Amino acid sequence: MVKPHDICDIDLLTQGEVGSKDREIALTKIRHLCELGHESVLAAVVKLKVRSKSRLELPAIAEASLDLNGTPIRAHAAGHSMSEAIDLLVEKLTRRLRRRRKRFESKRRQTVNRLRSRANYENAHYEVNSEERGQQPGYSRVPAEDREVVKHKSLAMRPVTLEEAADEMDQLDHGFYLFFDCDHDVDRVVYRNGGGLLYAMPTVSRENLPGDTRPPILPSSLVLNHLPLEDAKALLDVGEEPFVFFTDSPNGRGQVLYRRFDGHYGLITPAN
Questions:
Q1: Does the residue 115 lie in any domain?
Q2: CATH code (residue 93)
Q3: Do residues 157 and 252 share a domain?
Q4: Which one of 103, 120, 154 terminates a domain?
Q5: Mean pLDDT over all residues of the chain?
């Protein structure tokens, strides 16, 4: 099973005669629903209201608003009793979260298929000459002694899970993604090889949710190299991978040196 997401505290607002048992049931069910989602819940507000006018057929009202990474998901339900309204509310939220998950999975599959198609095309139309080590398909030819770090990105990396990092990499259409793994408190890189398979380094085990259709994240044979930048350049020049994951800083933070298509180097380092 996938580790449940850490969620924020749920704000519970009540109006009218709402019993303590109904309040506890609402909190428990909404919290369980949030933990089963594939996205982090940044905020959650639940409103329970009992209208006192006896002529109303459905006096109990239950409402909820969830903030999923900046996207609001809302639902409203009415019932003869508060427990009925809460159950209806949870059903509505569940349907909306499932629809959102299906759209997410569909978009992710399209991205994966596009990457695999592109990788298959490149593998079919290019060959790397063993005498030209450090030269990859589509890269400009620049002599090793003339290559420079022409682009340096210093990123403020927010803590994310391995799955969230893989999703962001696909959405950005990148071949690799440097991130801070919030589950293990380490810098990590997730990447795709030429065949479109998904890897993580340093290696980490990932549990799969039953029925999960996401591509597996495989263990990588690559490691975090402890070496200075110049040695990282040399390792990149003689290797077959498009990047080197290394650290040369006193705090041990991971960095990525990668090949640019103009033949020079790019460098990504954490800002925090």
A1: no
A2: 3.30.160.100
A3: yes
A4: 103
A5: 78
258 close to 243: Cβ distance less than 8 angstroms: yes
The verdict on 230 and 155 lying in the same domain is: yes
For residue 118, pLDDT beyond 90: no
> Do 167 and 265 fall into the same domain?
yes
- Residue 147 one-letter amino acid: R
Q: With 0.90 as the threshold, say if the pTM is over it.
A: no
Tokens linked to 121: 């095309």
Q: What is the pLDDT of residues 75-85, one digit of tens each?
A: 889 898 999 99
Domain that holds residue 48: 10-103
The CATH number of the domain where 213 resides is what?
3.30.505.50
- Over residues 26-53, the pLDDT tens digits come to 999 998 888 776 677 888 999 999 987 6
Model pLDDT for residues 121-165, shown as the tens digit of each residue: 444 433 333 333 344 445 667 887 888 999 999 988 888 888 888
Q: Domain total for the chain?
A: 2
| Closest of 73, 74, 23 to residue 48, by C-alpha | 23
Q: Has residue 187 been placed in a domain?
A: yes
